[in-house]
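debug: dumping io for the single-chain case to check the tokenizer round-trip. Nothing else runs in this session.
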Amino acid sequence: MHGTRTVVSVMRWWATLCKSAFVHMNLFSRDEATSAHTYTLWAILGLVFLLPVFLIVHAAVPPMMSKVAVAGVGALAVLAVFAITHIRAQKISMPRALLLGAAWLLPLSYLLATLFADDRAVSLYGERLTMDSFVFIVTGVVLLTVAASVVRTQKAALAVYLTMLGTAVLVSVVQVVLFFARDTIAATGIVLSSLSLLGSLNDLAVFYGLVIVFVLLSLLMLPVTVVVRGVLGFIVAVSLYFLMVVNLTVLWWIIGIFALGCLIYSASARYGGGGHPNVRVSYAALGIVAVCALYILAPQSITEQLARSAQVGEVEVRPSWHTTVEVGRAALASNALFGVGPDRFSVAWSANIPPEIYASEFWQSSFSYGIGYVPTTIVTAGLFACLAWLLFFAALVYHGVRGIVLAKKQKGADIALYVRVTSFVAASYLWVLTVLQVPSPALVMFAFLFSGLFIASLTYGASPVRTLHLAFRETPSIGFLATLSLTVAVLLSLGGMYGFTSRVSAEIAYQKALRVINSEGDLAAGEEHLRRALSSRPVDVYYRLMSNIDVARLQQLIAQAETPEAIRDQVQDLLARTISNATAATEADPEDYQNWYNLGLLYANITPLGISGSAESAQAALERALELRPDAPTALLALARLSRSVGDSSEAYAYARRVVEVRPRYSEANLLLAQIQLEQEDVAGALRSVEAVTIFEPNNPVAFFQLGLLHYGTDQYDAAVAALERAIEIAPEYANARYFLGLAYWRLNMNPAAIQQFEMVAETNPDNTNVQTILSNLRAGRPPFETESALDDVQGFSPIGEDGAVDEPGDDASSLEMESVGTPAPVGQ
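debug: decoded output
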């Protein structure tokens, strides 16, 4: 409660400060209160404030999806306000900038990619709301365009900056609470999907890097007082703290190079006489350069200390540059112009996954993005998108160089130059990071926003671009078209906002379904939430979960039934519904291999029930999964088990052998291969397969137990003792291992050791008469069993069971780029 009151107090204080500042700047006077630009500017300020801080934490919706939702809805709301107010004003103005035209090539390229995509519905918004979609790109360019038209004065631009500074203050307060009061927050029942308001710790660092950029430029270009300089210095210190906690290497390089440039400029301006006469040597830049150099050059043991003290850490994994290029090259070979379709990078990844990935712990992962956001869009939207990005970046650099040079030539234009430089540098900083990283949707929207502010700043002072003014009443025909276009924009923005909110509501229902199923085991409540999700948006992931709910109900029904006849009708209904939902998932997204794998497993599991055609259907679905993700170990293993269940041991052996070749440390595959080899009387091969599991998993007691049994069955008692002793060392209560270890000791004439093992087995199994008989015989100096045939039965015991999968460690692959954010933490899928 104390933390909440602090946040509220800060928000109230900042609102009062902003109001006083806006009034002092005479930004919103009574004469302008009803103007189109004023209302739209207020909408932009609201979006700037909400983008960094808004998260849907209620239902644990993924942070990126939350940011996409608020960015999309907010930008479309800005468009709606802009269109409505300009219809009323009957006039509109827009800068004639090359950059503005180049920006609209981006949604055009995405429109073409969407029209030629296999699944247009997915490419429109993204399967579950992503940045790599046509609507997100459109909303970003819309925000850029509106900002370029509305932020037409220097005071309006400063209002945007002031709002952003206020957001940074609020983010800082909340982040301190998140870092140091996590236990208190958890006690209230709030589940945090991330420790960062921006989405991830990387995004938090990028945001504070942006704050540092603004502060350094403000210190260099504005005539600030000693008090303001101290406040800005404190802001730099806070920003550096969060950068040091996150410790993102690429950001240290970018901020360090920028700060070094500011330092050189300030020194040359002060002592070289070629710069601004009021510029002082920037000690803030010097300090930042020193910190960046420390974190780039110092050992990791030193740079991680601050992160460890804050007890935060994330590891972000994404494909490397080389892998992104190779996957993109293979994917674009079939459709170079329009790509694989927006939000379909995961499909391209599955179809062209590098073989070395299967040897890493990320072998089952499906990546929705490549090394960076912009490279991903080139893979998904094709060469047209690549050309659009190149033209956009080229126009940004062209206007930046030309606009800044012209502004510096004009006397008394300090604020105009400040806005122009800061907006250009901020946009460039964020766009560079979209190439190198996959930033939060909020940061991508900020990149569009600052690009729009930069276009607007080109109309200040010495204007390198002109402004197009259009009064509807002066030219009725053009006015009619403009009014019609703005009306359509209002309708499209309302429809777009509905699309975003409906998808968010569907995701909230889906997350609720997951929560009640996993934490409470309530299948009925989970199904109810899932039905609401499907009614809003038929997504393949939702259908897959629905089919899994039906499978769980089927298992419960069979476990509770007394006779098969009593549940025959219910089983048939559940099976039909399960298959229907699994099939619907393949229809909702036929390019996702997981849907076909899920359907294949379902058919494979009901094959033993004798249902006609189930084996053939399972085979077809699993082979389709392999077409979409070649050599997928899970699909190959499922085919191996299916072949074995229908009696085709040679084909089962071929599939199992292929799995082990693709992923040698796949325990389940090695154990299944060993079972098949035993059935084919290839004991030596079975030994090698089980030994492989013990090598890859040296702490797996089951594997050592099975290896010991194989050695025992082939009369290699010394080896059997070594393996079984290792199993007991790992799991001292492993009674089965002690049982056979006792027999192996007896075979080696180590009777006291054998008696000791069976006594320990008897302690944990006091009612086992067989163990008591063995102990009596051994104590009397007799063999453990009365007859030799009993010993033969033990020797012929098949040690490999169907189960035996254990969690397996993995290693990193060169095709992946891992980033340690803060203190390294285990990577989840």
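debug: round-trip ok. Residues 394 and 630 are 39 Å apart (CA to CA).
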